[in-house]
Amino acid sequence: MAVPKRKTSKSKKNMRRAANSKFSAAGFVNCPNCGETKLPHRVCSDCGHYKGKEVVETQ
């Protein structure tokens, strides 16, 4: 069984973990009706529209 010869330093550990933070959360689009950001192919939580039609009634 392979065993590390030396302890991984905090610097090396953090450099390895930092590679995952380079990617940002993509996929947000603006609602064509109200302009709020929303996930694609979902009903807008602010105005209740989907594909130009009101699907959910909002206040």
TrEMBL record:
InterPro entries: Ribosomal_bL32 (IPR002677), Ribosomal_bL32_bact (IPR044957), Ribosomal_zn-bd (IPR011332). Keywords: Ribonucleoprotein, Ribosomal protein. GO terms for cellular component: large ribosomal subunit. It comes from the Bacteria. GO terms for biological process: translation. The keyword Ribosomal protein applies. GO terms for molecular function: structural constituent of ribosome. Transmembrane segments: none annotated. The keyword Ribonucleoprotein applies. Pfam families: Ribosomal_L32p. SUPFAM superfamilies: Zn-binding ribosomal proteins (SSF57829). PANTHER family: 50S RIBOSOMAL PROTEIN L32, LARGE RIBOSOMAL SUBUNIT PROTEIN BL32. HAMAP family: Ribosomal_bL32 (MF_00340). Belongs to the bacterial ribosomal protein bL32 family. This is Large ribosomal subunit protein bL32. The lineage of its organism: Bacteria, Bacillati, Bacillota, Clostridia, Eubacteriales.
